[in-house]
DNA sequence: CCGCCGCCCTGCTTGC
DNA sequence: TGCAAGCAGGGCGGCG
């Protein structure tokens, strides 16, 4: 499940590998994965364009092209974005492949076919609905307090809402709530100022640490070079049903909040 | 504006 | 042991 740290790791890898390269050809093996404006053919539109830069926005990897357009890649749950050498075999379930003029290739693979590679036009506000970047300066404790005030939504559901904060998924929402000692089901408006400040700090810290460890490989996440991350080894609650809480030793429980598995410690999180 | 529901998919887990 | 059914999950469109 690629979230902010995983996508950031992929983006850093892509930056080193494909910035400056010119696209020779694009191939789409499964139509619905490659999304374009009406009447535009993905393959025809991309040939000859070049990669200017690669950035991350929320859980999306964005390849900015010389033409002013961009390729916005949403990996969803099982999407992979991998750079391949000239003769390297493409991963299973590769749906979109981009060949560069120097022979290197970029493959988008996705078992479940939920991910998308979208070609957006210059100036198209594709990310208008995305909220604040949690690792940016504008995500302050005060801003966070304002966002949560008056909301009845369980705090965990709020953390997962990409319209508020962009990039947090199930893993890091669970981890941050454990770190801050807050129950996932607590209505947002019930949190004290002190609790919101703890959560803010925990969220930023957990995300930073996970970026530093190149993300979590829970299911099948790998970076642009096909390498696994390291944060799955130091998770405190996510996926640790029945295991001991690293803080108090009590056993971690799994409950369901908003149709999503939620892991937490009944003793540490109040 | 907000929140909830169902859908998209396939591999893995569960239960008989 | 084998097989079918159930489940998981991020984002989005539809609906109230």
Main sheet: strand order: 2-9-5-4-3
Alpha-beta classification: alpha+beta
Q: Percent helix among the residues?
A: 10-25%
Name the poorly predicted regions.
none
Q: Can you characterise this structure?
A:
This protein is of the alpha+beta class and 270 residues long. It has helices at residues 4-18, 42-46, 141-148, 155-160, 170-180, 193-212; strands at 23-28, 34-35, 51-57, 60-65, 70-74, 79-84, 94-100, 105-110, 116-120, 253-257, 260-264. Helix 1 runs parallel beside helix 6 (193-212), helix 3 crosses helix 6 and helix 5 packs across helix 6. 42% of the residues are buried. It binds a DNA duplex (16 and 16 nucleotides) through residues 1, 59, 74-78, 110-116, 153, 157, 160, 162, 169-170, 258-261.
Question: Which helices and strands occur, and which strands form pairs?
Answer:
Elements: H1 4-18, E1 23-28, E2 34-35, H2 42-46, E3 51-57, E4 60-65, E5 70-74, E6 79-84, E7 94-100, E8 105-110, E9 116-120, H3 141-148, H4 155-160, H5 170-180, H6 193-212, E10 253-257, E11 260-264
Parallel strand pairs: 2-9
Antiparallel strand pairs: 1-7, 3-4, 4-5, 5-9, 6-8, 7-8, 10-11
Helix pairs in contact: 1-6, 3-6, 5-6
This protein binds a DNA duplex (16 and 16 nucleotides) through loops.
Provide a short characterization of the protein structure.
This protein is α+β, with helices and mostly antiparallel strands and 270 residues long. Helix content is 24%, strand content 22%. The protein has two domains: 4-120, MutM-like, N-terminal (N-terminal domain of MutM-like DNA repair proteins, Alpha-Beta Barrel); 141-265, Helicase, Ruva Protein, domain 3 (Orthogonal Bundle).
């Amino acid at each position: 499940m690629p979230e902010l740290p995983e996508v950031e790791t992929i983006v850093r890898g892509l930056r080193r590998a494909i910035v400056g390269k010119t696209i020779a050809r694009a191939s789409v093996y499964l139509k619905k994965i490659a999304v374009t404006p009406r009447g535009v053919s993905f393959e025809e539109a991309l040939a000859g364009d070049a990669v200017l830069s690669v950035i991350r926005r929320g859980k999306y990897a964005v390849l900015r092209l010389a033409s002013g357009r961009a390729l916005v890649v949403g990996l969803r749950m099982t999407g992979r974005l991998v750079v391949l050498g000239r003769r390297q075999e493409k991963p299973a379930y590769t749906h979109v492949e981009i060949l560069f003029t120097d022979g290197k290739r970029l493959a988008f693979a996705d078992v479940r076919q939920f991910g998308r590679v979208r070609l957006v036009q210059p100036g198209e506000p594709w990310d208008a609905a995305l909220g604040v970047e949690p690792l940016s300066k504008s995500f302050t404790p005060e801003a966070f307090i304002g966002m949560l005030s008056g909301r009845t939504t369980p705090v965990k559901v709020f953390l997962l809402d990409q319209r508020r904060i962009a990039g947090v998924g199930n893993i890091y929402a669970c981890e941050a709530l454990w770190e801050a000692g807050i129950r996932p089901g607590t209505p947002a408006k019930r949190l004290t100022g002190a609790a919101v400040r703890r959560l803010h700090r925990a969220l930023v810290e957990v995300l930073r640490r996970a970026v530093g460890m190149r993300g979590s490989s829970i299911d099948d996440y790998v970076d642009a070079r096909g390498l696994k991350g390291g944060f799955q080894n130091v998770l405190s609650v996510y996926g640790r049903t029945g295991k001991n809480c690293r803080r108090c030793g009590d056993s971690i429980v799994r409950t369901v909040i908003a149709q999503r598995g939620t892991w937490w410690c009944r003793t540490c999180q109040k």
